[in-house]
Amino acid sequence: MNKMIKVCLIALMAATTTTAFAHHHHHHRGTGFAIGAGILGAGLLASTIYDATHPRPYVAPAPVVVAPQPVVVAPQPQVVVQQPQVVVQQPAPVVVQQPVGHYENRVQNVWVEGRYVDQTTPQGAVVRTWQPGHYEQQQTQVWVTP
């Protein structure tokens, strides 16, 4: 039991016993309680004195041993990469056909829209004149097949 609790209980029993004996001449029924309280107080007092004169030996707790986890070293796995087989397909032979036909130069009449034309005079002035729409002959190449 805790030493402080024992001291408080002894003091309480002593106070109860003293009070019971002090009022004994007025109440004859409280004698049994006072005797019981006195016996209990004496027992607690004896227990406290015994504990004080016979201390319990200190028992140290068993040491806790923690073993580290074993280190496992595994070799690195070997990675084998297989190269895919390269299949070379021969392209189909290209047949070059000689074109049948030829280019001819032809003259065509092409309509040119009307527009303003800027001309610079010998004095450096710019004169804008209207040139009306007209047909022009243009030479173009045309592919002719037989």
Provide structural commentary.
The chain has 146 residues and is α+β, with helices and mostly antiparallel strands. Among the domains are: 3-53; 103-144, no CATH class. The chain is 29% helix and 23% strand. It has two helices and four strands, in the order ααββββ. The radius of gyration is 65 Å and the shape is elongated. The two termini are 130 Å apart. The model has no long low-confidence stretch (mean pLDDT 79).
Biggest β-sheet, characterized? 2 strands, antiparallel
Contiguous uncertain segments of 5+ residues: none
Would you report the number of β strands? Answer: 4
- Annotation field: number of helices: 2
Q: How do the helices and strands line up, and which of them pair or pack?
A:
Elements: H1 3-22, H2 31-53, E1 102-112, E2 115-120, E3 126-131, E4 134-144
Antiparallel strand pairs: 1-4, 2-3
Helix pairs in contact: 1-2
What keywords describe this structure?
146 residues; alpha+beta; two-stranded antiparallel ribbon; 2 helices; elongated
Task: Provide a short characterization of the protein structure.
By secondary structure, the protein is of the alpha+beta class. Among the domains are: 51 residues; 42 residues, no CATH class.
